[in-house]
Design a protein that fits this description.
Strand order of the largest sheet: 1-2-3
Largest sheet: 3 strands, antiparallel
Shape: elongated
Distance between the termini: 66 Å
Radius of gyration: 27 Å
Oligomer: single chain
Helix content: 25-40%
Length: 235
């Protein structure tokens, strides 16, 4: 059980080992796992109160089932700081992790609604990133927000361009359905699309990305942005 002392010192209650004798003993883990040595007011208070100071590896080992670590706060592996990869799990403890295949998300309603298999989507995502070698240009009025769309695309292996790709490059890929540059616009930005439309270039809405990631498919036909907008001068 975690607790916070009167001066803000974050502690972990060692009573989790079920020994009542240790119910008042605590250990302190520095908030920055990358610091080379413990320092500062919190560390000084920990020493003053004789509270053992440990690294995040100690916490990780306990989470992976090594409850003996509760009694090993003085071991070198738990009192060394500035580790190269402080969150790396101890290899022989990883076997204690449960098989994720037995706990896959089940959402039959969504699978029917979007005509896909979640299990198959996860399999495809593990085989290869959906947007690998794909570059996206997104207009500022996109919804979800530009930052959210950028995160989704990058998590799926794509890259977001900071400026519009040249028309010459886009025209080179016009007939190529494996094109590397993809334009994502929204109705609020239709006024930015006219030159793309006039050159017969494909422009997609956000669903190309959102539904694409969900189903793990690149569907170039189902999510085109409307081409009916003719501009304010023609209204």
């Amino acid at each position: 059980m975690s607790s916070v002392s009167k001066c803000g010192l974050v502690c972990v209650n060692r009573s989790t080992n079920l020994n009542a004798d240790n119910s008042n003993e605590c250990v302190f883990s520095p908030p920055d796992p990358n610091q080379k040595r413990p320092a500062g007011l919190k560390y000084e208070k920990a020493k003053e109160w004789q509270i053992p100071c440990v690294n995040v590896k100690w916490l990780g080992d306990i989470l992976l089932g090594n409850f003996e670590a509760l009694q090993q706060t003085q071991y070198g592996c738990y009192t060394t700081f500035g580790l190269q990869d402080p969150f790396a799990p101890t290899p022989h403890l990883v076997v204690n992790l449960l098989d994720e295949q037995n706990y896959l998300l089940q959402d039959a309603e969504a699978e029917v609604l979007f005509s896909f298999s979640l299990e198959e989507s996860l399999r495809r995502a593990h085989v290869s990133p959906l947007f690998k070698v794909k570059y996206f240009y997104i207009t500022p009025g996109i919804c979800p927000s530009l930052s959210t769309m950028k995160m989704i695309m990058e998590c799926a292996g794509g890259k977001v361009l900071s400026k519009q790709p040249s028309f010459r490059k886009l025209m080179e890929h016009k007939e190529d359905k494996s094109l590397s540059e993809i334009l994502i616009f929204c109705e609020n930005d239709l006024h930015l699309c006219q030159e793309y439309f006039s050159r017969g270039l494909d422009v997609h809405n956000a669903e190309f990305v959102l539904t694409g990631v969900l189903t793990q498919t690149l569907d170039y036909e189902s999510y085109p942005l409307g081409r009916w907008w003719v501009g304010p001068s023609h209204r």
